[in-house]
């Protein structure tokens, strides 16, 4: 049976809105992680057959095929093709799955999956500013005036019974775990240092080392009468990330050292109104297809788009909270949209290997009610 392996994985440290990475053009930031993932693998760059780049805000400086532009900025041979994809927040997780499918099918042997989002220089919503992305027919089908991730988050909190106190408590734990991981230098191996004005950017800028339940409790809700705040939602973030996926033949031919084997690829879709609930059901399907139970998984990365999502996922799956987002999640570390898929995979693989653990599961909610699940085995 064909196999797909990850042989290198890298990310930038996240930058806050208008923060340390403001001077980096997104094309150059993405190009930097492409060059680094090749350098870490030790492979001859001429052997790479494709670059698959996830990006949500494909406008402004991220327009006109940011994947190809990043490949050209990286210094890789101009002969290497690229494609830019959008599966909303799961864009670069889907890039991993497309890369793995190419390898498993035998059509390609060496593919880079990557993602980029510079939310400071290309603000969220830039690509639809002044436009109407949803048709009247589409809206009428679901009986809504629009689709909103914020509404979806509020719906999940209400459906699963999470009040403001529960969401803030979860968020505080995310910051505590991220701060502890940063203090242990757990992210050091996975982060590509970037030169910035006045120094080097090596630490995720969003971590609140002094986070408190009082501080979180003092924030206003995003919707009047709701429970979602900026403190229990993911942070706007600038960043890029990349992983290299190869076949077993490439592993041997190029004398590569695998970090992980890809064990399962799943993507499902459901209700576009509640929108963010699909990771629960996608996880069920992934485990069933893999012949595994949730107890077989050593670590889980469930994207913290909003605190109700991982909490509902825990309740639905019966997973162990101690294994979830062990180094903190997007509430503390930031959610650079199209870059988050390969970012989480990078963190998951390094966390598994650092702890001597075997199986990891990654999932995230995505616009339109879609969810990806990827299961890997650390080697």
Compile the SSE list and pairings.
Elements lengths: L3 E8 L14 H16 L8 E5 L11 H9 L7 E4 L5 H15 L4 E9 L17 H7 L6 H12 L3 H20 L10 E3 L2 E3 L11 H5 L20 E10 H6 L6 E10 L8 H13 L8 E4 L5 H10 L12 H4 L6 H16 L3 E8 L3 E9 L1
Parallel strand pairs: 2-3, 2-4, 9-10
Antiparallel strand pairs: 1-7, 1-8, 4-7, 5-6, 8-11, 10-11
Helix pairs in contact: 1-2, 3-12, 5-10, 9-10
Q: What does this protein structure show overall?
A:
The protein contains twelve helices and eleven strands. With 379 residues, the chain is α/β, with parallel strands linked by helices. Strands 3-2-4-7-1-8-11-10-9 form a nine-stranded mixed beta sheet, sandwiched between helices. A two-stranded antiparallel sheet has the order 5-6. α1 packs across α2, α3 crosses α12 and α9 packs parallel to α10. The longest helix is centred in the middle third of the chain and has 20 residues. It starts with a strand and ends with a strand. The mean pLDDT is 97. This is Acetyl-CoA C-acyltransferase. Belongs to the thiolase-like superfamily. Thiolase family. InterPro entries: Thiolase, Thiolase-like, Thiolase_C, Thiolase_CS, Thiolase_N.
Shape: globular
Number of separate helices: 12
Structural class: alpha/beta
Order of neighbouring strands in the sheet with most strands: 3-2-4-7-1-8-11-10-9
Fraction of residues in helix: 25-40%
